Amino acid sequence: VPPKSLVHLTWALTVFTTLAFVAAYEPLDIAFDMTHLVCASSTPSSTSSCRAINVAHVLASFVFLADILFKARVLGYETRGAVVTDRKSIRRRYLVDRRWQSFVPDVMAVSPLVIVELPLLVLLTVEPGDYRRNSYQRVAPILRCILHLAKLHDCLDDHGMCMYEKLCDTFDTLKASFVALLLIYFFVEHCLACMWFIVNEQHANGLKQSWMHSLDDLAADADAWDAGNRTPSMAIRFWIAAFYWGSTAGDGFTAVNTRERLVGIVGIVIMVNLV
Prior knowledge:
The chain is mainly alpha-helical. The protein is built from twelve helices and two strands. Strands 1-2 form a two-stranded antiparallel sheet. Helix 8 (158-170) crosses helix 9 (173-201). The chain starts with 5 loop residues before the first helix and ends with a helix.
């Protein structure tokens, strides 16, 4: 398949759609234990949502596995103005010449299928209302997220360049750059919002010692969260508040402990350099 062809663009969109799910959902899962909050509910809609989330995690790994085969056997490349479509050359470029830039990160992105998803199938039992389970099930979302996000290298690799050039052809370079910057901004802010919540929850007194408890519309939710009465909608409200904090550099919020101040400093430094 020639690079930047319709087939390549279609597959690149598939990979990036999967990567968008990973980048958006998995930090939420780490911060709020979102999958278990959904699965711990006994309502029919929650049961369906739980199955959909677990299937999506597995499908993400399979899409990344298919991408390895696509790059190693199908996707051609350009060199010195010529398109190379010889499969032996394609395989050598991917597995040898670009093993550290492409092959190793791609293998890392697939590894959750073996070291996360299969063990979780064995530990799938969920008790309604039990918002935390054993230590492996708490660590699993972190492992899954770190390994899946190794796939972010595709943003600067063949797939990323294919999509960026298509955006430039469809619109113009300025608009394409704006879209790329907007996506980066959202991802960074999303991670900062999740980090902001994590440092609050890990305090010895829970959310009672955080800025969230000082907000009138979140105080009751914070008390319920500390008491273990947690729901997905409550987690979304916390995320919106944390994202608002990140997008406004803390405007309207006062850090009440050292951890919050440290995350605030990191957030401001990152956003100043990003902008």
